[in-house]
Amino acid sequence: MAKRSSLSIRIVEGKNLPAKDITGSSDPYCIVKVDNEPIIRTATVWKTLCPFWGEEYQVHLPPTFHAVAFYVMDEDALSRDDVIGKVCLTRDTLASHPKGFSGWAHLTEVDPDEEVQGEIHLRLEVVPGPRAHRLRCSVLEARDLAPKDRNGASDPFVRVRYNGRTQETSIVKKSCYPRWNETFEFELEERAAEALCVEAWDWDLVSRNDFLGKVVFNVQRLRVAQQEEGWFRLQPDQSKSLRDKGNLGSLQLEVRLRDETVLPSGCYQPLVQLLCHEVKLGAQGPGQLIPLIEETTSTECRQDVATSLLKLFLGQGLAKDFLDLLFQLELRRTSEANTLFRSNSLASKSMESFLKVAGMRYLHGIVGPIIDKVFEEKKYVELDPSKVEVKDVGCSGLHRPQTEAEVLEQSAQTLRAHLGALLSSLSRSVRACPAVVRATFRQLFRRVRERFPGTQHENVPFIAVTSFLCLRFFSPAIMSPKLFYLRERHADARTSRTLLLLAKAVQNVGNMDTPASRAKEAWMEPLQPTVRQGVAQLKDFIAKLVDIEEKEELDLQRTLSLQAPPVKEGPLFIHRTKGKGPLTSSSFKKLHFSLTTEALSFAKTPSSKKSAFIRLANIRAAEKVEEKSFGSSHVMQVIYTDDAGRPQTAYLQCKCVNELNQWLSALRKVSINNSGLLGSYHPGIFRGDKWSCCHQKDRTDRGCDKTRSRVTLQEWNDPLDHDLEAQLIYRHLLGVEPALRQLIENCVSWRKLFLRVPLYVFYPRLCPVLLPPVLWPVAWLGCRLSHSIPAHPFSTQPQPHIVCATLSLNTGTTHK
């Protein structure tokens, strides 16, 4: 049994931000910190006081995290970025919103005395004395203190206060991981009600000392316990009055905390077997559970349910069969061909998730080069006459205003070139399309053609495929390339307009150039020749895509499975030590790294032959490095063992905080099951004769900070976690349990018998008599939700009970 916590974060937009630049605007972006550790950085939105980001993230965390904070920053090219304000949500606040926190939150001023982080290790004892008891406080060490100095560190000392007396430790220079091992004693007053206060401070020579946090202890409680030792989280100074919240603007957020208790795989087998059995039988079988899930799922959570089901069936090798079942169910209730797959049904949402999981790399290969070209050219493109901006053109000294007709014609030429290049790339990519995607589209094409035969519906199977491929996959990626990992930054206004017009053209092609799509925006007419040509190309592409035989498909899939696909790849800078011996001076060399499920490799260029660098099984930790170590805040270390079993460390530099966290996340995910993972590490480097972080002189000294192997970012190419997906589906079924029970009760005439006698007593013998076969699985699930189930859903003989997959997580008990 494992406890897992995750944060679903959507940073929507900001409004009424203060102007930080002399132009009267700002260049805002957001930094997301979990317990003061930067996890996410949004893109910068230039020259605005009401930025829109619309970025979504999911962060997996240990259940012990305390708070998540959103800092709105103003980016400056020539100076340090300005802090506009922040919104802080504690774990308790998020836990009080089961459906998630959603809405506008006022930004508050960032007070240095509240920006505390880290923990302090203390031992407190009440020592008996001849005349009076004494209170002994041992200040051992601290970790992850806030860096307050320009060198990326602090000069910490500790001040212990009790009953009007104050004692201080020595100062540890240039360290956020100090070790003191100093003990102080105070005479314990019998009637004194004062608390013991332990404060950490950063010593400064010429300015006032900076506050690093404090811990307050109840002396009366210490009297009872006699001794207390452990790591205590430093708290901010709450003595100051609340600051004004109304003049820094607001931030719209959607944040949801999800805590899951994931049980061993065997506990979920009955539920997984039931779902898989229903999918294998298809729409012609007696299964009703998946249709019931669709009927009882609200619009707000349908995407989450669809994603969980899809990942579960991907892990079982039944993704194509699951989607085929959903296709058939939707086709049964659709009478008009022009409304097919246009709603946000479970089939549509599942197919969207499927394309993101299975087809994202394919999308990057097709759309990526076109997107890059649009960003690089930054051409002014507009087809709507009501929005055309006339500008000056010509050589130096010979400027003339460009006419509206010239702008429209030039824009049409640019869009025709981009659209033609995109469609040409797509038409040549039949073999590049992932095998499972091709098989799914082939099944969709056949089902739609069977449902809508006849010449009047000859385009319907093609439109069914393009409704997902073009309208729900390619077009959204073109309009918002950052959300599909195609770009690191949002587009500026000019580029965004070009992408929007290109996405509209792709939608027209996907709609097979129907009169209805042409009538919506008549000013798109200049693109019609390219659109009509694109329709022919797209139909030819789909015909080839669905024509590949299954045997050929399987052969290709086996060939591809022999190649370990990269989990993550890209350029990184690897540290090189100059000279021999301890680290004295260093440089970083740029190489192209590739992380697969076997090893971390590198090459000089992406196309060069790769050399194995670190075997995956040898990785012991992947963590951040202190900024002061190399003068950069974007350096990570991979701690591993070489072939001789000796510990080694590789230092790799990333270009930004997002890239750093993505690499750390990928490395942690692929090595999470390694034996010998470290529980602590040194966030600094061994320079000269000591560690730069804690100043210890033993190179093999235990680490001064704890590792964070459970902190990861969820991405489209994550390894599947079957148990977690089964738990999420189970949790959803608990929420719709009343609907399941109501369906069973409404489908039988012996309602009183159901209410008076436990279901499991008569289910094995009477269920086949009471219920039609189509509802047997539903009744079986009802038994399971009653916490008592037979071993097999279709058995007519009594079966011994097994440990039920449905456990009451509220009580923490296992029902048998």
UniProtKB/TrEMBL annotation:
<dbReference type="GO" id="GO:0035556">
    <property type="term" value="P:intracellular signal transduction"/>
</dbReference>
<dbReference type="GO" id="GO:0046580">
    <property type="term" value="P:negative regulation of Ras protein signal transduction"/>
</dbReference>
<keyword id="KW-0106">Calcium</keyword>
<dbReference type="GO" id="GO:0071277">
    <property type="term" value="P:cellular response to calcium ion"/>
</dbReference>
<keyword id="KW-0963">Cytoplasm</keyword>
<keyword id="KW-0479">Metal-binding</keyword>
<feature type="domain" description="C2">
    <location>
        <begin position="1"/>
        <end position="105"/>
    </location>
</feature>
<feature type="domain" description="Ras-GAP">
    <location>
        <begin position="301"/>
        <end position="511"/>
    </location>
</feature>
<keyword id="KW-0862">Zinc</keyword>
<dbReference type="Pfam" id="PF00168">
    <property type="entry name" value="C2"/>
</dbReference>
<dbReference type="GO" id="GO:0005096">
    <property type="term" value="F:GTPase activator activity"/>
</dbReference>
<dbReference type="Pfam" id="PF00779">
    <property type="entry name" value="BTK"/>
</dbReference>
<dbReference type="InterPro" id="IPR001936">
    <property type="entry name" value="RasGAP_dom"/>
</dbReference>
<feature type="domain" description="PH">
    <location>
        <begin position="565"/>
        <end position="672"/>
    </location>
</feature>
<keyword id="KW-0343">GTPase activation</keyword>
<dbReference type="GO" id="GO:0005829">
    <property type="term" value="C:cytosol"/>
</dbReference>
<keyword id="KW-0472">Membrane</keyword>
<dbReference type="InterPro" id="IPR000008">
    <property type="entry name" value="C2_dom"/>
</dbReference>
<dbReference type="InterPro" id="IPR011993">
    <property type="entry name" value="PH-like_dom_sf"/>
</dbReference>
<dbReference type="GO" id="GO:0005886">
    <property type="term" value="C:plasma membrane"/>
</dbReference>
<dbReference type="InterPro" id="IPR001562">
    <property type="entry name" value="Znf_Btk_motif"/>
</dbReference>
<dbReference type="InterPro" id="IPR008936">
    <property type="entry name" value="Rho_GTPase_activation_prot"/>
</dbReference>
<dbReference type="InterPro" id="IPR037777">
    <property type="entry name" value="RASA4_PH"/>
</dbReference>
<dbReference type="Pfam" id="PF00169">
    <property type="entry name" value="PH"/>
</dbReference>
<dbReference type="Pfam" id="PF00616">
    <property type="entry name" value="RasGAP"/>
</dbReference>
<dbReference type="GO" id="GO:0008270">
    <property type="term" value="F:zinc ion binding"/>
</dbReference>
<keyword id="KW-0677">Repeat</keyword>
<protein>
    <recommendedName>
        <fullName>Ras GTPase-activating protein 4</fullName>
    </recommendedName>
</protein>
<dbReference type="InterPro" id="IPR001849">
    <property type="entry name" value="PH_domain"/>
</dbReference>
<dbReference type="InterPro" id="IPR035892">
    <property type="entry name" value="C2_domain_sf"/>
</dbReference>
<dbReference type="GO" id="GO:0005543">
    <property type="term" value="F:phospholipid binding"/>
</dbReference>
<feature type="domain" description="C2">
    <location>
        <begin position="116"/>
        <end position="232"/>
    </location>
</feature>
<dbReference type="InterPro" id="IPR039360">
    <property type="entry name" value="Ras_GTPase"/>
</dbReference>
<keyword id="KW-0863">Zinc-finger</keyword>
<keyword id="KW-1003">Cell membrane</keyword>
<dbReference type="InterPro" id="IPR023152">
    <property type="entry name" value="RasGAP_CS"/>
</dbReference>
